[in-house]
Design a protein that fits this description.
By secondary structure, the protein is of the alpha/beta class.
Length: 431
C-alpha cells in the first residue's frame, strides 16, 4: 500500500505555491506595503528612478520568472524555451523599432553596469588598455573609469570634464586629451550632465585617434526614443542603456552593436562571459515598456519631462540658486546647494523630512568631501509619470527653496511637508 506521505507533501506544496504574499509572508508584505505608501506620498526627484506601469509590474511578476533559458533564442541550453524565445525576440524587435536602428540588440544584461562591462570586453580591450571617459565628479558614471570600479581597476583611464566657467563639455579639450592619450575606447554619456551631447563630434574625435566610440545613453534613452535628444545611432560603435530611468521599464540593461562582428562578441561576453541565465520575466517587462514607449503618449510624456526639468531649473535661478551648467536640456540638473550654505547631504536629509526625495551629489570642482557634496541631483521622470507638469515643477522648486532656506523654521517645514503631501494626493500612483 502506498504511503500517505507523498500525497500530504503534494498538498502542502500546492498550498504554498498558491498562497498570496500577504498570507505566505506577512512580514515582507508589510514592507512592500510600506514602500508603496512611501512612493505614494513622496515627491520622487531621483533622476535615475521612475514609476513603471501596471503592465510592466504584471510581466515582471509573471510565470516567466520560473524559466531558466541560458543562451539566445533558438540556441538555448535548456528545453522548453519556445515561449520565452518569443518574448526575447519581441523585446529585440521593439527596441530596434523604438530607436529606429538596425544595430544588433542584446536585451539580456541584468543592469547597465553589466552591459558596460560587456562592451569593454567586446571592444577587445586587454587589462591596462587605455580608455577615455567623463570624470565621475563632473557627471560621468562609475563604469566610465572610476578608480574603485572594474573600469578603473582593469584599464588605464584618462578623464575629460566640464569647463570651470560655463560647466559644459569643451570638445576641443576632449580632442586634445584624446590625441595625447591615444585611447582604444572613448565613452560618451553621463549620469549627471544636463546639456545635449554632441555625438558627431565624439565620433570625429574617436576616428582621429583610431578609437572605438561607446555611447552610454542610460539617462537620456527615453529622450532619444522620443526624438528630444540627438541619437547616437550611426555615430557609435556600441550603445548601451538601462531600461528604467527615462525609458520607464524594469531595472535592467541593453546593448546595441553597430557591426555583426561586435554583436557576436557582445553576445558571447554577456553569456557565458559575465552572466548565466537571463531573467526572462525582466526581458518580458522590457518588451512591454518598449511597446509603451512606441505610443504617441510616450512622446508627450517625455516632452513634459524635459519642459518640467527646464522650468524647475529656471525657477531655482530666479530664486537665487546656482544651477550647474546654467540650466538643462534634458530630464535632470544639479543644484549647487552650498551656494546657500548647506551641503548636499544636509539638503538630502532635510528634504526627506518634508517628503521630497533627492540624492546628494558632487558638483564640478567640488571642495566638499564625497560623503557630503556641494550639490543635489534633481530629475523629473518619476513625478511626470504620475502626472506632474510644468506648474507642479515650479511649485516643487519653491518647496525646496523654502525647506532649505528656512531649514530651522519648524512652521515653514510643516507647511512644506503639507503642501508636498497635497501634491502627491492630487496625482496618485496605481489608483
Amino acid at each position: 500500500m502506498a504511503s500517505s506521505a507523498p500525497l500530504s507533501s503534494t498538498l502542502s506544496t500546492n498550498h504554498t505555491v498558491k498562497r498570496a504574499l500577504g498570507v505566505a509572508d506577512p512580514e515582507l508584505a508589510a514592507i512592500v506595503a510600506a514602500e508603496e505608501h512611501r512612493q505614494q506620498y513622496t515627491i520622487e526627484l531621483i533622476a535615475s528612478e521612475n514609476i513603471v506601469s501596471t503592465a510592466v509590474l504584471e510581466a515582471q511578476g509573471s510565470v516567466l520568472t520560473n524559466k531558466y533559458a541560458e543562451g539566445y533564442p533558438g540556441k538555448r541550453y535548456y528545453g522548453g524555451c519556445e515561449e520565452v524565445d518569443k518574448a526575447e525576440e519581441l523585446a529585440i524587435r521593439r527596441a530596434q523599432q523604438l530607436f529606429k536602428t538596425d544595430y544588433a540588440v542584446n536585451v539580456q544584461p541584468h543592469s547597465g553596469s553589466q552591459a558596460n562591462m560587456a562592451v569593454y570586453m567586446a571592444a577587445g580591450l586587454a587589462k591596462g588598455d587605455k580608455v577615455l571617459g567623463m570624470s565621475l565628479d563632473h557627471g560621468g558614471h562609475l563604469t566610465h573609469g572610476y578608480k574603485l570600479n572594474f573600469s578603473g581597476l582593469d584599464y588605464t583611464i584618462a578623464s575629460y570634464g566640464v569647463t570651470k566657467d560655463a560647466q559644459v563639455i569643451d570638445y576641443d579639450e576632449v580632442a586634445r586629451i584624446a590625441a595625447e592619450f591615444q585611447p582604444k575606447l572613448i565613452i560618451a554619456g553621463a549620469s549627471n550632465y544636463s546639456r545635449t551631447l554632441d555625438f558627431p563630434r565624439f565620433a570625429a574625435i574617436a576616428k582621429q585617434v583610431g578609437a572605438l566610440l561607446f555611447v552610454d545613453m542610460a539617462h537620456i534613452a527615453g529622450l532619444v526614443a522620443a526624438g528630444l535628444h540627438p541619437s547616437p545611432f550611426g555615430h557609435a560603435d556600441f550603445v548601451t542603456t538601462t531600461t528604467h530611468k527615462t525609458l520607464r521599464g524594469p531595472r535592467g540593461g541593453m546593448i546595441f552593436s553597430r557591426s555583426p562582428e561586435h554583436a557576436k562578441k557582445v553576445n558571447s561576453r554577456v553569456f557565458p562571459g559575465i552572466q548565466g541565465g537571463p531573467l526572462m520575466h525582466v526581458i518580458a517587462a522590457k518588451a512591454v515598456s518598449f511597446g509603451e514607449a512606441l505610443r504617441p503618449e510616450f512622446t508627450e510624456y517625455m516632452g513634459r519631462v524635459k519642459a518640467s526639468s527646464a522650468a524647475m531649473a529656471d525657477e531655482f535661478k530666479r530664486l537665487g540658486w546656482q544651477v550647474v551648467s546654467g540650466g538643462t536640456d534634458n530630464h535632470l540638473f544639479s543644484l549647487n546647494v552650498m551656494s546657500n550654505g548647506v551641503t548636499g547631504k544636509q539638503a538630502e536629509d532635510k528634504l526627506h523630512e518634508v517628503g521630497i526625495t533627492v540624492n546628494k551629489n558632487l558638483i564640478p570642482f567640488d571642495t566638499q568631501p564625497a560623503q557630503a557634496g556641494s550639490g543635489i541631483r534633481i530629475g523629473t521622470p518619476a513625478v511626470c509619470s504620475r502626472g506632474f507638469g510644468v506648474p507642479e515643477a515650479v511649485e516643487i522648486a519653491r518647496l525646496i527653496d523654502q525647506t532649505l532656506k528656512k531649514r530651522d523654521d519648524a512652521a515653514a517645514l510643516a507647511d512644506a511637508k503639507a503642501r508636498a503631501r497635497a501634491m502627491c494626493e492630487r496625482f496618485p500612483i496605481y489608483r
